[in-house]
Amino acid sequence: MKVQLNVNGFEYEASYTDREVNNIYLPLLKDITKKSRENKGNRYIVFLAAPPGTGKSTLSLLLEKLSREDDNLENLQALSLDGFHHFNDYLKSNYMEIDGKKELLYRRKGAPETFDLENIKTYLKKLSENKKVKWPIYDRQLHNPVMDVIDINSKIILIEGNWLLLDEEGWRDIKEFADYSIFIEAKKETIKNRLISRKVRGGYSQEDAENFYLNSDGPNVDRVLNHRMESDLLLEMLETCENKIK
């Protein structure tokens, strides 16, 4: 199954096997629909967490698309955590400590420390209380977040992000807002190859892509995989990039 999806403002063709769609995603949507309808009219919040390079953004949009094509399913709205990055001005003037050394946050953009965690909690609280919310986005042209852009218009809200199940101080508190959670895991080498290839396709040299993985993507992958809380559903990304329930 091939679908055209708009990922972060860019058109992207994603491929999924019929086996994935029929054996994992449609049953998952049916289960979430059932649970959401038992939730007494309140919003039903789903977390989709995974390391970089596992296709969580495209998967979230696929689930949104599938939900809207079946009248028996409750509409699902896919949102990203990326709009909660700190602005570049903040990242270029604040530091984090790595192995006893101070490093500019801007050089580690994408790490948990580069997100506005308190703002995330504020928005999640509003969502859980059924309050009117406009969700922020990350503008890939401005390379900055833009606040209050997306109207929340569905009962089921799926939020995707690397750090949604991070088992670290402050971050572990946000799990209380999730009614259901999904995690995608994969072999580190598979993720590494995908991320380096993606950078090369984006114009990086092989050497620069490998250095970027070593200094940025790689530490984030390790942190997501090794410091996470349990999820309600665990998916495994195979080397073919197909997912299976683990």
Structure description:
This protein is α/β, with parallel strands linked by helices. Helix content is 34%, strand content 27%. The chain has helices at residues 18-37, 56-68, 88-91, 117-128, 188-201, 206-226, and strands at residues 2-7, 10-15, 44-49, 76-80, 95-98, 101-104, 134-139, 144-151, 156-161, 180-186, 233-237, 243-245. A six-stranded mixed β-sheet has the order 4-9-3-10-11-12. The longest helix is centred in the C-terminal third of the chain and has 21 residues, at 206-226. The protein is globular.
Instruction: Give the helix proportion (percent range).
Output: 25-40%
Strand content: 25-35%
- Poorly predicted tracts of residues: none
Widest sheet: strand ordering: 4-9-3-10-11-12
The structure class reads alpha/beta
Q: Radius of gyration, rounded?
A: 18 Å
Largest sheet: 6 strands, mixed
Q: How do the SSEs run, as a string of H and E?
A: EEHEHEHEEHEEEEHHEE
- Given the C-alpha coordinates, what overall shape results? globular
Number of strands: 12
Features:
single chain, 246 residues, alpha/beta, six-stranded mixed β-sheet, two-stranded antiparallel sheet, 6 helices, 34% helix, globular
